[in-house]
From TrEMBL:
Signal keyword on record: no
Keyword Isomerase (UniProt): no
Protein name: GMP reductase
Family of this protein: Belongs to the IMPDH/GMPR family. GuaC type 2 subfamily.
Organism: Virgibacillus massiliensis
Binding of NADP(+), residues: 207-230
GO annotation, cellular component aspect: cytosol; GMP reductase complex
Swiss-Prot/TrEMBL keywords: NADP, Oxidoreductase
Role of this protein: Catalyzes the irreversible NADPH-dependent deamination of GMP to IMP. It functions in the conversion of nucleobase, nucleoside and nucleotide derivatives of G to A nucleotides, and in maintaining the intracellular balance of A and G nucleotides.
GO biological process: purine nucleotide metabolic process
Length: 330
């Protein structure tokens, strides 16, 4: 059994401020390097169909943000890579592990269409299916940076890294539209931050923390506990640009956000581990990204530095389930 004293989640932790070394938060640098490219923020919108589409991917790439396109319209991926490369932008796609995905990878290699990033997007990433796919991609597309997941244990991180993954994605069930924990009894939901720390200690390559981010402060906490990058769904859902229908209810604008393992995504009620919810309309994605950057710059200043790395070593306290005291940001 995992030692319960080491179990905590985002809301249980407060980072402790250190002496400020900048005269303005604008001096704090939030950039991060992953796979040889430098991005404005250590944040990537989730590769889900209600979070990202080709238009958002292009916007993110053009403005210096990392992105991962989802894999739920597989027939569009080749044109997507060509289009991004024609614009001199990074191509970052997702794959699954079924038979046709092996052919797809070979097809890319034959056409010399080499995505800069390939994410293997599977619910239970600690599996031979993912290990085999990592090896397959590394054989046919050795120049692509492979992100593999999702996992929730150090053993899984080691196995995927040993198979050739360049980064691993941590988070089984902490997502807002996730019902894995309820339907299966498994996962890192409720202790995602502790699981991240546990995995990061074993990792020799970057870790992407995935799911459970509810506030911008949680990004800083993820960095503190070992993430190089943070994947976020719900905070990016419901924007003007977000895919999905806008609904007006009681004078309020709402947008749908559904899980990749939901009935809505799958089109059938089979192995459903996700749900659909309506989220409040949030305005423009660019505004949210700017606010995230400002908040992270502020986090860096509280950490007593001027770069993201300053956050990695700050002290923290465990304040079990108490930091919000009923407060809400909005
Ligand atoms: N991060 C998270 O906590 C979770 C994320 N998701 C998301 O939902 C989407 C669908 O995921 P997924 O179902 O893996 O993708 P797929 O439906 O593409 O399944 C991929 C393959 O893995 C098999 N598979 C899936 N889950 C398991 C398992 N628990 N044990 C053994 N084999 C398994 C499937 O077979 P078969 O269907 O026959 O079992 C299938 O052959 C992904 O985008 C994923 O990221 C889903 C759940 C949790
Ligand atoms: N268990 C499930 N997890 C899912 C599903 N669809 C996506 N996800 C995961 O959630 C995160 C986003 O989490 P959030 O808390 O930021 O909203 C996403 O990146 C996936 O890893 C699903 O259907 N079931």
């Amino acid at each position: 059994m995992y030692n319960m004293e080491n179990v905590f989640d985002y809301e249980d932790i407060q980072l402790i401020p250190a002496k400020c070394m900048v005269s303005s938060r604008s001096q704090c640098d939030t950039t991060v390097t992953l796979g040889g490219n430098t991005f404005k923020l250590p944040v990537v919108p989730a590769n889900m169909q209600t979070i990202i589409d080709e238009k958002i991917a292009t916007f993110l790439a053009e403005h210096g943000y990392f992105y991962i396109m989802h894999r739920f319209e597989p027939e569009k991926r080749i044109d997507f890579i060509k289009d991004m490369h024609a614009r001199d932008l990074i191509a970052s796609i997702s794959v699954g592990v079924k038979g046709e995905e092996y052919d797809f990878v070979k097809q890319l290699a034959e056409a010399q269409l080499i995505p800069e990033y390939i994410t293997i997007d599977i619910a239970h990433g600690h599996s031979d299916a993912v290990i085999k796919m990592i090896r397959h991609i590394k054989q046919y597309l050795p120049a692509s940076f492979v992100i593999a997941g999702n996992v929730g244990t150090p053993e899984a991180v080691r196995e995927l890294e040993n198979a050739g993954a360049d980064a691993t994605k941590v988070g089984i069930g902490p997502g807002k539209v996730c019902i894995t924990k309820i339907k299966t009894g498994f996962g890192t939901g409720g202790w995602q931050l502790a699981a991240l720390r546990w995995c990061a200690k074993a990792a020799t390559k970057p870790i992407i923390a995935d799911g459970g981010i509810r506030t911008h402060g949680d990004i800083a906490k993820s960095i503190r506990f070992g993430a190089s990058m943070v994947m976020i769904g719900s905070l990016f859902a419901g924007h003007e640009e977000s895919p999905g229908v806008t609904i007006e209810k009681d004078g309020k604008l709402l947008k749908e956000y559904f899980g990749s393992a939901s009935e809505f995504q799958k089109g059938e009620k089979k192995n459903v581990e996700g749900k659909k919810m309506l989220v409040e309309h949030k305005g423009s994605l660019a505004d949210t990204l700017n606010e995230m950057q400002q908040d992270l710059q502020s986090s860096i200043s509280y950490a007593g530095g001027n770069k993201l790395d300053a956050i990695r070593t700050v002290d923290y306290v465990v304040v079990k389930n108490s930091i919000f005291n009923g407060d809400k940001v909005y």
